[in-house]
Amino acid sequence: MPVSFRYHSFEILKRGGGSRQIRTPFPDLMLLQRRVSDLLQNCVAEINQAHNRKDQLAHGFKRGRSIITNGTKHTRRRYVLNIDLQDFFPSINFGRVRGFFLKDRNFAVHPDVATVLAQIACHNNSLPQGSPCSPVISNLIAHMLDIHLGKLAFDTGCTYSRYADDLTFSTNKRIFPASIASPVQGQKHSWELGDSLLEIVRRSNFTVNPQKTRMQYRTSRQDVTGLVVNSKVNIRSEYRRRVRAMAHRLFMTGRFEFVQPVRELNGSLVPTVKEGNLAQLHGMLGHIDGVDRFNADLRAQGQPHGIASAKNLSN
């Protein structure tokens, strides 16, 4: 099949600005990639069971994990540091995918098998964002990054987690560890990443996006992968209000509006108000309900909202 007929491409707006290129495979290739994804997920489960691993560092695109489990690791913290990996999926090219399946001791497949797996997974020499098997393969390749950053966090009294290209460190220490990040002298609320962290990222063949480094303090709103984590994982209040207004508009008029990106003649993506559909509203309501149910289950079980206890804030 010609390369041009394997994927459908479109762009979505990022919450922090800019756009993200999404490439979804056409049906036959998507079915194949889903089967590869399921197979690799099963392999990961067997490997973790065989080595008695809990593997709690990565939370994106994993069975039993979500933005909720990711955010819960960082509730009630004095400092929450968010870091973004630049071009996460595009930086994982054909050679890295093939080399992983060849060299990783848990896989170590035949060279022909490694080549076929990389051919199935890659498009234009990188993992396409939108393919069903890109997430699990990216987690496999980024696993060593997680191990080294997790050790750095443990050694410095921090908690670490990753959701796709979003890295988060948090702590209740009075002074944030300089090996991870330190304040820029003379620039209020500006932080620079520590040499130890940057060296680990570099050796893992990834790159930090310097524009996306953000330190959040307990005196202001702290969020991790879109959820507020100051006292418990929760939905942003403005998101709730926006969805409530959409639902009210639908009930009153039979329609509602939704912001979608539209490409103008100069090539730029501009947020444009368009008529929304029920699937979009259903997804947003489901997101809110999932977080609310998680917190309701914790209350029913008599468990605290999050891992860190409030008394640790005084340490």
What can you tell me about this protein's structure?
This protein is α+β, with helices and mostly antiparallel strands. Helices cover 39% and strands 19% of the residues. The protein contains 9 helices and 12 strands. It has helices at residues 27-50, 67-72, 94-103, 111-121, 134-141, 143-155, 195-203, 237-253, 278-301; strands spanning 7-13, 19-25, 79-84, 159-163, 166-171, 181-183, 191-193, 214-217, 223-224, 227-228, 257-263, 269-275. The protein has a 4-stranded antiparallel sheet. A two-stranded antiparallel sheet has the order 1-2. Helix 1 (27-50) packs parallel to helix 5 (134-141), helix 3 (94-103) runs antiparallel to helix 4 (111-121) and helix 6 runs antiparallel to helix 7. The protein is globular, with a radius of gyration of 21 Å. It starts with 6 loop residues before the first strand and ends in a 14-residue tail after the last helix. Mean pLDDT is 91; it is low at 307-315.
Summarize this entry quickly:
The chain is an alpha+beta fold.
What structural keywords apply?
alpha+beta; four-stranded antiparallel beta sheet; two-stranded antiparallel sheet; 9 helices; globular; disordered C terminus
- Please report the number of helical segments: 9
Spans of 5+ residues with little confidence (pLDDT < 50)? 307-315
Relative helix content? 25-40%
Distance, first to last CA: 61 Å
The Rg value, from CA coordinates, equals 21 Å
Would you tell me the structural class of the helices and strands?
A: alpha+beta
**What is the overall silhouette?**
globular
Strand order of the largest sheet: 4-5-3-8
Say how many strands there are.
12
SSE series? EEHHEHHHHEEEEHEEEHEEH
The overall pLDDT average reads: 91
Q: Largest beta sheet, briefly?
A: 4 strands, antiparallel
Beta strand %: 15-25%
